[in-house]
Amino acid sequence: MQPCVIKSGFQVLPCSIHSLQRSCPSSPIFRRPFSIVSDPLSLSSDLCTSKLNTKQLQRKKMNQAAMGEATSVKDKGKLLVFENEEELMVALAKYTSELSEKIVKERGAFTVVLSGGSLIKCLGKLVEPPFFDSVEWARWHIFWVDERVVPLDHPESNYKLAYDGFLSKVPIPPGHVYAINDSLSPEDAADDYETGLKQLVHSGVVDISAVTSFPNFDLMLLGMGPDGHVASLFPGHHLIHENQRWVTYIKDSPKPPPERITFTFPVINSASNIALVIVGAGKADMMKRVLCDEQHSDLLPVQMVSPVHGELVWFTDKEASSKLPGSSLL
What we know:
Layout: E1 4-6, E2 10-12, H1 54-63, E3 69-73, E4 77-82, H2 85-107, E5 110-114, H3 119-122, H4 131-134, E6 140-144, E7 146-148, H5 158-165, H6 186-203, E8 207-208, E9 215-216, E10 219-222, E11 247-250, E12 260-263, H7 265-268, E13 274-278, H8 284-292, E14 312-317
Parallel strand pairs: 4-14, 5-6, 5-10, 10-13, 13-14
Antiparallel strand pairs: 1-2, 3-4, 7-12, 8-9, 11-12
């Protein structure tokens, strides 16, 4: 089945769930506000310098439940640490579904931006009861914070990853899933995606931030690379300083494939809610550097994630946080 191009060139793939084989999207949509931790332990303002006395430690262990342990990380958002990936997935599903319900009630739609990597797997509980049944999927609109400029059925495609692992399992209308036009060059694909976003702003699907004048997505779901990159914004690359474009392109990505498009930091930081989902021991060294190491003067891309609206929430497991001070107490 050949994809059709709607207006701007967003790839909106017409199909049924049965006929969608890698090349076709199905889309999810809505419901539920977020309640993160009912009784979070209050540490000092800086995770890396906080000390726990015996009573605090006992309380900390008691409070560690399905929603994880909440810690205020100075100037860096809220850190939730879960015993394992399974608990993290349940908490992320609760957070997302409740936030969806809240925002749908407020504005009738829920705009969600996805990334690639392990994030899609971490959304797995959303397709199971009770979360699946609590979400009004028809209200969701799905975007990508970055995408590899490859065919949509290519193994490296973030769209394919999301479709196979998530979108094919939920009834989001195909017209609400905004894939890149994979027939274009990186430059044209970025221009095309930005043009499509502007049309959706004009039609009222996507809001504009009154503070930044950049798109104001409801939820940005991000991962972090082992080098501290987010989206396709890499350490030391000039694109991390782009502050005019909504969507730009990269042809020399240090991580293959080299050609990609990506949202810029002004768009990422204009989202109403940002969740950074980081799992696995392979991220432990970078988590320690990002949250605790003050010796490095140059900010890593993940350290540049700083929402203008709302709150940044870190969803991590015990392995990813194992090298943070006090992690042995979790």
